Amino acid sequence: MMRIVLSRVGEALVSLLLMSVVVFFLARLTGDPVAVLLGDGATEADKQALISELGLNRSVFEQYFIFLGNVLQGDFGRSIMGDQSPAFQLVLERLPYSLLLASASLVIALGIGIPLGVAAAVNRGRPLDVAARAAALFGQSVPPFWLGLVLIYIFAVQLGWARTSGFGGLANIALPAFTMALFSLAAIVRLVRGAMIEALTSEYVKLARAKGLPERDVIWRHAFRNSAFPVITFMGAFFATMITGAVVIETVFSWPGVGRLALESILRRDFAVIQAVVLMITTLYIVMNLMVDLLYAWLDPRVREAA
Amino acid sequence: MAGAATLAVAGCGRAPFEATQLTVAMPTFAEGTFLPWTGGGQRKAFLDAMYDYLCIIDPATGEPGPGLASDWSVTSDGLEWTFRIRPGVQFQRGYGEVASTDAAFSIRQIIRPTARAGPSSPLRRLIRDIATPDPRILVIRLTRPDPELAKGYLANAQQVGIVCARHVAEAGERAASLNPVGSGPYMLDFFRRDSEIRLRIRTDSENIWRPRPAFETLVFRAVPEVSTRVAMMKTGEADIAPISYDDIGDVERTGLAVRSIPQSWSPVIRLGGLVQEGGRFEPKNPWADVRVRQAMNYAIDKNAIIRRIFHGQGRIAASDTPVEAWASLAPYDYDPARAKALLAEAGYPKGFPVTLKAFATTPGAELPVVAQAVALYWRAVGIEVSTELIDWTSLRSAWTSGAARSYVWTHRGFPFTSAQNGLEAGFDARSVFSAFSTPELQAMLDAHANELDPGKRRAKLTEIGVYLRDQAANVFIAHIDEPYAASRKVGEWTITSSNALNFEGIQPASGTAA
After folding, report:
1. DSSP secondary-structure letter at A223?
2. pLDDT at res. B511
3. Contacts of A38 in chain B (CB under 8 A)
4. What DSSP element (H or E) covers B57?
5. Cβ–Cβ of A35/B399 closer than 8 Å?
6. What is the pLDDT of residues A244-297, one digit of tens each?
7. Which of B430, B281, B435 lies closest to A46 in space, CA to CA?
8. Is A256–B192 a contact, with Cβ atoms under 8 angstroms apart?
9. What percent of chain B has pLDDT over 70?
């Protein structure tokens, strides 16, 4: 197990270094923040002074090595906007909101997706299966922007059961969490259904049934346990996406998460914040993948032996 | 269903009616900072309730009246302004009486090199030094005459809010920004970045010298999506929100009121390569010829754009900003035949190719649609238009670097209480945001800036307006109102372009007294 961990940590460090190069240079290809910061009636002299203040008069390679040196000391730089807060602090401020929304979505996606996928597989070809597959197709194809607005209209405006937007209690998180969950819920239904159909026709399930085990134990303890691997893989990657990539949902529901911070930073060319967000996303992906690998090893003795 | 039922039982969906609270849904908090010099003018919605300004523009006349300054005078050469600070005005949180040193400190912060406020650059060039010979007297000496200083940069339509200098010195700028101290009627009570700002009436409300606001609490919520803002209005979660022109009918049908800020902005087409200074001139562009520019103006049915895209919320214009002295200027008519004739006369009987770039912003979400309409009208007279969507930052970057020379783009003009401030920003060749400049225009601008006699000054300003119109400096379209949905809680609300976000001045509607 330790070898798996060490190997993955080594790969993670290389990935982070490569990602720092990619995000640093890509961000600068899109222009610079000088024009955003210049006020009404600014002159060329004001512009040059600002370029100098932001250190943009140095070569881009020099800027990169300064950035890298600072990151290694835990300093991601400061936002160029407003009171120039530390970039990493801005990301950390938003992270709890994104984690909360992603966790709520995960609970909804798993809580509905797994039973529905199992039920569809067990009832293959019957109306329940057809309905589950149709629902999954809808969930994966409906644009979250549209869905979010429809849910607001129905549950907030017409029924008054939920709040339209903003951070707050259950009434605030219900709609964005469900909107965000729907895509992954649909994917889970399809993954679980496919894996369960295969598992239910396998020899070990036939054996379990032949031994006279109750059908519930056959489905959940034998078939489902072996069908869970694709779901674990999917959710590992998807959880990281949900934390950082919910730009549309955070915008529609005015949720103060990392996704909106990323979008606003890109629009303002706030390089330090863009870099901090992307490196955090990368780290999250790596951590989630590492957790998935460790979970695999824990669940499957063959993985441990291979390692 | 179980979840929905739980919510219903919990009864937590509908916003409770809070008679003493006014909730404003805004597209953005911009930088979300609370010191005037740490960001742009979009923050004025909440900063104006916390800070005072030296002068306050009278909504009826557009002229400056007393604010924190009880009166002021200017020397005959227009180079030295003396402001007398209103006695007895107290800062919030027990920081004592507002003095001239606080005003001097606030102005110095705005003009410091690292300031991010809108007027920082021109004010930096304008102010020679600031003196406070007496705790009540503030003297500002200028590098050139500015007879409109009280009406322009130092009035409440701009960004020089007066901050408590001692508080910033004691707390440090970062802490002071999160716990600001001004002398306005409201204090910051709660802030969640890009989510919520809550202001409360100051605890020592007996020290409010401005008219006492009717609502105890002002809550601002950052809601970037306009459909969500409209939904908030319908559910009662918001009392005021800017809405799109397409939403006006829907909002009115639900029984909510729509109030508009008159002449809040102007859609306009800027033409690249027309600044005849600093390598920003491109004489090969067809529109370097004034006849072509006039043709591009004549070709567009501006009334149709106002009617169809802005639902009648605006009026056809001959300028990119509303200036009282230009009010009687006749705009370009819709005359496609004349446009074709002018193009033929200029040597383009079959038109020419042009790229029209457009971006969406707030206000100005309609600019891409305006671009499509303009493209159709131009195509009808033979101009071969290709439209491109672009983000505002990229366009702004190209514009300020002088790279935007070979194409044209949609843009927004904003009103300035001082026409001179607007001209400096948009047409002075020294400004990186200049979109049109000729030596002749520059001479007219300088002559206007140095003229102190009010009558002659107005005449010079009118000449400038006529020149910009006749030269077709931009493709002028309209001066547009900005619609806000208002709940039944909102009664009398005086809004003008000089005091657009006067939320503290809202009176509760009868029957919903705060």
Report:
1. I
2. 65
3. 121, 400, 432-433
4. strand B55-57
5. yes
6. 668 899 999 999 999 999 888 888 889 999 999 988 888 888 888 878 877 777
7. B430
8. yes
9. 95
Do the beta carbons of residue B26 and residue B194 sit within 8 Å?
A: no
Helix (H) or strand (E) holding A192: helix A170-200
Q: At a CB cut-off of 8 Å and minimum separation 6, what does B199 contact?
A: B46, B49, B50, B186, B187, B188, B189, B217, B218, B219, B220
* Percent of chain B scoring above 90 in pLDDT: 72
pLDDT at A16: 86
| B221 reaches A (C-beta below 8 A) | yes
B 405-444 near A (Cβ less than 8 A): 421, 424-425, 428, 430-433
Nearest-CA residue of chain B relative to A175? B4
pLDDT of A25-61, one tens digit each?
988 887 778 888 887 778 888 888 888 888 888 999 9
Smallest CA–CA distance, residue A124 to chain B, in Å, is 25
B40 to chain A, any CB pair closer than 8 A? The answer is: yes
Q: Are A36 and B7 an interchain contact pair (Cβ–Cβ within 8 Å)?
A: no
**Residues 6+ positions from B197 with CB-CB distance below 8 Å:** B29, B32, B46, B188, B190, B191, B219, B220
Chain B residue closest in CA terms to A145: B225
Phi/psi of residue B234, each to 5°? -70, -35
Strand partners, B138: B83
Q: Where are the alpha helices (DSSP H) in B401-437?
A: 419-426
What residues of B are in contact with residue A42 (Cβ under 8 Å)?
A: 121, 400, 431-433
CA distances from B168 to B35, B37, B171 (A): 10, 12, 5
Rg of chain B over CA atoms, in angstroms?
24
B455-492 burial, b at 16+ Cβ within 10 Å, e below that, comes to eebeebbbebbebbbebbbbbbbbbbbbbbbbbebbbe
B168's tokens: 């910033």
What mean pLDDT is predicted for residues A67-73?
Answer: 90
Whole-angstrom Cα Rg for chain A: 24
How does pLDDT run across B136-175, given as a tens digit for each residue? 999 999 999 999 999 999 999 889 999 999 999 999 998 9
Q: Return the axis-axis angle of helices A258-268 and A271-299, rounded to nearest 10°.
A: 140
- The chain B residue lying nearest A248, using CA atoms, is B225
Tell me: pLDDT of B423 over 50.
yes
Q: Dump the DSSP string for A48-111.
A: HHHHHHTTTTS-HHHHHHHHHHHHHTT---B-SSTT--BHHHHHHHHHHHHHHHHHHHHHHHHH
Tokens of B349: 């009987």
Give A238→chain B minimum CA distance, Å.
23
Q: Tokens representing A214? A: 């109750």
| A167–B425 C-beta distance less than 8 A | no
Chain A partners of B194 at a C-beta cutoff of 8 Å?
256, 260-261, 264
Q: What pLDDT was estimated at residue B10?
A: 43
Kindly indicate the confidence band of residue B6, based on its pLDDT and cuts at 50, 70 and 90: very low
- Using the beta-carbon criterion (under 8 Å), do A157 and B396 form an inter-chain contact? no
**B236: nearest Cα among B467, B9, B14:** B14
pLDDT at A244: 65
Instruction: Spell out which residues of chain A touch residue B196, defining contact as CB-CB under 8 Å.
Output: 166-167
Alpha-carbon distance of B170 to B242, in angstroms, equals: 38
The answer to whether residue B490 scores a pLDDT higher than 60 is: yes
- Among A41, A90, A157, select the one facing B428 at the smallest CB separation: A41
- pLDDT for B9 equals 40
A89 neighbourhood in chain B, CB within 8 Å: none
Indicate the pairing of strand B353-358 with strand B21-26. unpaired
What is the number of residues in chain A?
A: 307
Residue of chain A whose alpha carbon sits nearest to that of B361: A267
CA distances from B263 to A9, B245, B483 (A): 59, 14, 11
